[in-house]
Amino acid sequence: MKMMLAENIRAFRKERSLTQEQLSEALGVTAGAVYKWEAKLSIPELELILQMADFFDTSVDVLLGYEVKDNRLEATVKRLQEYRRSKDRDGLAEAEKALKKYPHSFRIVSESAALYRAFGYESGDKALFHRALELLEQSRLLLSQNKDPQVSEQTIYGRIADTYLGLGETDKAIELWKTHNADGVYSPRIGYNLAENGHVEEAVPFLSEALLKLVSDLITTIMGYVNVYLKRGDHASCQAILSWGFGLLLGLRDADKPNYFDRVSAVLLVVLAGSQHLSGQGDEARDTLIKAKELATFFDASPSYDESDIRFINRIEGASAYDDLGATAMDGVRNVVSQFQNEEFSALWSAVTEE
């Protein structure tokens, strides 16, 4: 619970337009005593609290202003999260109280660990990082309680590795990331920290894997947005994100060599043309379809599914590129045109292919 005595003394005094000196005279104390009460530097004795309550025509309870906190588990978790968001270091004391009350709660232990890690990074205080490590290990043992699908043993080990990094124990952090790098989730951090610490050649495969996965996920995300915007009829946003995605993939071209993303880019161009057609931009749609046709033809003339043909990416052991667009880039373009189920758009594509 929280006491609002200092704030209430000040509020009641100002409500009656009294200075600190005038209140001190009424209570038979020094002006300095009133100042200290309002500044939370001291607390008046009980007799003076009773006297002030009578002077202000209020009850002792109101003057004290006790604010009773909801200390149930769910409310405590939310409070710890808010301390972290607001960067309020009072949250550390709150966390320790919560840990005493709920020592075997995964959520309390996990949120407390997050608080210590956050303030450890903010201040560089190693003691905070060490406390975070204790709590992270404890949370791992309580993981069976977890109901958050975004949290797993892998993510907890990732947080432990981040904490070791905060302690300056980079080698230990890298080894933990490597051990728990399922689906390459920690490849960006491994690659970055290896390169930063001079292990350049060892870093490259991790960075290549990370970049390839990042771009693949980004394409899927872009197409998700495209579906949203097309269903909303928001063609301006649809065209903006497709143009941005196409430019991004174009930047991965290594000189004039075709690469797998050319095949994907041809499809993005067709979707862009479809949006332009539906929004009444007939000339723009035609020009974009011509670009899609040229790019698909360019790729099909010398198709490449080798990831090392993509700029910045080295060969990745076991990697492969595949999709459901069709056997060739041109098949993919035709399939996407047909998915619009728009006779005029299909006729426009036919006219472009016959040129």
Secondary structure topology:
Layout: H1 5-15, H2 20-27, H3 31-38, H4 46-55, H5 60-64, H6 73-86, H7 90-101, H8 106-123, H9 126-141, H10 153-166, H11 170-179, H12 187-196, H13 200-232, H14 235-250, H15 260-278, H16 282-301, H17 329-339, H18 343-354
Tally the beta strands.
0
CATH architecture of the largest domain: Alpha Horseshoe
> How can the largest sheet be summarized?
none
What is the averaged pLDDT score? 93
Q: Which fold name fills CATH's third level, the topology of the largest domain?
A: Serine Threonine Protein Phosphatase 5, Tetratricopeptide repeat
Description:
This protein has 355 residues and is mainly α. The protein folds into three domains: 5-64, Orthogonal Bundle (434 Repressor (Amino-terminal Domain)), CATH 1.10.260.40; 73-180, Tetratricopeptide repeat domain (Serine Threonine Protein Phosphatase 5, Tetratricopeptide repeat); 202-354, Serine Threonine Protein Phosphatase 5, Tetratricopeptide repeat, CATH 1.25.40. It contains 18 helices and no strands. α16 (282-301) crosses α18. The N and C termini lie far apart (78 Å). The model has no long low-confidence stretch (mean pLDDT 93).
Keywords:
355 residues, 434 Repressor (Amino-terminal Domain), Serine Threonine Protein Phosphatase 5, Tetratricopeptide repeat, 18 helices
Give the structure's gist in a few sentences.
It is built from 18 helices and no strands. The chain has about 350 residues and is mostly helical.
